[in-house]
TrEMBL record:
Top EC class, one word: ligase
Lineage of origin: Bacteria, Bacillati, Bacillota, Bacilli, Lactobacillales
InterPro entries, sorted: Aldolase_TIM, N/Namide_PRibTrfase, NAPRTase_C, Nic_PRibTrfase-Fam, Nic_PRibTrfase_pncB, Nicotinate_pribotase-like_C
Keyword presence, Phosphoprotein: yes
Nicotinate phosphoribosyltransferase C-terminal domain span: 250-358
Stated role: Catalyzes the first step in the biosynthesis of NAD from nicotinic acid, the ATP-dependent synthesis of beta-nicotinate D-ribonucleotide from nicotinate and 5-phospho-D-ribose 1-phosphate.
UniProt PTM: Transiently phosphorylated on a His residue during the reaction cycle. Phosphorylation strongly increases the affinity for substrates and increases the rate of nicotinate D-ribonucleotide production. Dephosphorylation regenerates the low-affinity form of the enzyme, leading to product release.
GO CC annotation: cytosol
Originating organism: Secundilactobacillus malefermentans
Reactions the enzyme catalyzes: 5-phospho-alpha-D-ribose 1-diphosphate + nicotinate + ATP + H2O = nicotinate beta-D-ribonucleotide + ADP + phosphate + diphosphate
Name under which the protein is recorded: Nicotinate phosphoribosyltransferase
Amino acid sequence: MTITGPLEQAQLLETLVLNIVNHQSLIATKARRLSYAAAGRPIMEFGARRAQGPDSALYGTRAAIIGGANSTSNVLAAKLFDIPVASTMAHSWIEAFPDELTAFRKWTEQYPDNSALLVDTYDVLNSGIPNAVTVFKELRAAGHEPVGIRIDSGDVTTLSQAARTQLDAAGFPNAKITISNALDEHIITSLLHEGAPIDNFGIGEKLITSASAPVLSGVYKLAATESNGQSTPKIKVSASREKLTIPGDKQVYRLYEPGTQRAFADLIALATETIVDATSLTVVTSDPLSVDRQQRLTHFEARPLLAPVDLSNTTSIPVTTIQATTQAKLAELPRTTQRLVNPDLYPVYMTTTLSQLQTSLLNKMTILAD
């Protein structure tokens, strides 16, 4: 993202921009990882009670949908952002009645065509499932079909397998099994590997807090100043090479195999450079720790990623539209870069012109320091 404007105004945006981009990128990325692990099974965002404050719950939900979640239990976020709502009953509902069966019956009176019963309040296999089956049969006799059950504790693999057997034997093979309880992508992967017959995942704290990586250290740095129509590139120097900034007004290109939607790298260039589809181009890797920094790229199509936005004339884009765009862009990236364990690095290069500008400014600052 490049923000252009009077220095005082642009500087005022720093905290706001970083707060929005860093937080929501974390949640969207976590949702992407969870969605990948779920292998096409729906994910319900359940995290409002674990979020770090009301705003984090609202905008975390929005980011989770963008990253791949399918619905939310946060009804305010659903209303504000037009997100599908999905949830099940609470343990407190069941505990508020004299017994579990009565609680199930009262729930299905309220939601005869959307009944998903929470079966782990007392005993999943000896109480929850048998009582659920009883109520499901009553629903069917009245002309309704149940949605399914939710398990929120215990050995989920064993319980879900036994629950599936009981539901099928009772004549409810289409009743879905939803699980929740501190899930993350690694637990989901393990459960599915073990053969747990799970249809949906309700994910709360590990998603809404991006528990495995709760901080994204995105930065907002001055890259150039302009005076009397003359642009002057700026650089921040650090003792750590990886914290050295990239100077100048820039454009970012995604590089594709010709005639395809298969991307293989990104290229950062100065905005004044013209990058066209090429048969050969020398570039420099932006990884400061790389041993072989200069490389030769051949046969690619370059498509710009940055486009101007007029903030005085913006319209609200539906979250589901943003999600669809996200999924389409992810599909263009190499699958080997998306796996959860030992992913390949996705290359990001600089043009030689940009790299030389960075080096010249670095050398200049070093001479001044001396």
